[in-house]
């Protein structure tokens, strides 16, 4: 948290030059750069493993782009959605719950009129779901995983869920993966991911900053 507090108020450009971190010419094509920079500066260790970013602390890092009014500007990716071999999976052992058990949220002022390198890092904070939030997440997860298990993956849309939604996660429509089809057969479909809705992350920010 000392490291987190030390970078609050800096722009991404200032932070990158302070740490001699390689910067792309065009951040629009390098969407993951901000997260990579913050992970590097704060010492995250997990990389792309399905573990919390700070393995020894059991803490997941999430950067959160926010507006001038302090509202989240986009949904937050949590983990890849399993689409086969889902029988017997439970919320308590799921990758989503492991990732959201303890989160370091780092708000970044990211309005579209601010150039990427001029975006300002806000006050990071640690968060754990309240029992009510955990129950809400569990309900959304179970409802949508049940549809996957029943071979109804194509019925899932971003409208489902109060806290978590499932939606396609692929660079383009040519990327496909295996999933359970309507009659139990294996079909090809777009990879999916779990995302936290902005209404849910907005509530987390409200709780923290009494907005």
UniProtKB/TrEMBL annotation:
Keyword Transport part of the UniProt annotation: no
Alphabetized Gene3D superfamilies for the sequence: DNA mismatch repair MutH/Restriction endonuclease, type II
InterPro entries according to UniProt: DNA_mismatch_repair_MutH, DNA_rep_MutH/RE_typeII_Sau3AI, DNA_rep_MutH/T2_RE_sf, Restrct_endonuc-II-like
GO-annotated cellular components: cytoplasm
Subcellular location, record wording: Cytoplasm
Main location: cytoplasm
Similarity field: Belongs to the MutH family.
Record function comment: Sequence-specific endonuclease that cleaves unmethylated GATC sequences. It is involved in DNA mismatch repair.
Name of this chain's protein: DNA mismatch repair protein MutH
Organism of this sequence: Pseudoalteromonas espejiana
């Amino acid at each position: 948290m000392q490291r987190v507090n030390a970078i609050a108020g800096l722009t991404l450009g200032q932070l990158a030059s302070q740490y001699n971190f390689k910067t792309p010419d065009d951040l629009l094509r390098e969407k993951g750069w901000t997260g990579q920079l913050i992970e590097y500066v704060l010492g995250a260790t997990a990389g792309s493993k399905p573990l919390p970013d700070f393995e020894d602390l059991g803490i997941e890092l999430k950067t959160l782009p926010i507006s001038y009014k302090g509202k989240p500007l986009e949904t937050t990716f949590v983990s890849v959605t399993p689409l086969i071999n889902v029988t017997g999976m439970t919320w308590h052992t799921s990758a989503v719950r492991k990732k959201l058990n303890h989160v370091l949220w780092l708000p970044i002022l990211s309005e579209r009129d601010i150039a990427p390198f001029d975006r300002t890092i806000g006050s990071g904070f640690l968060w754990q779901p309240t029992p009510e939030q955990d129950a809400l997440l569990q309900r959304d997860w179970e409802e949508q995983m049940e549809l996957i298990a029943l071979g109804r993956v194509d019925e899932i849309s971003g409208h489902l869920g109060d806290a978590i939604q499932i939606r396609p996660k692929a660079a383009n429509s040519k990327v496909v993966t295996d999933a359970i089809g309507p009659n139990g057969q294996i079909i090809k479909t777009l990879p999916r991911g779990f995302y936290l809705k902005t209404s849910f992350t907005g509530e987390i920010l409200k709780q923290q900053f009494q907005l």
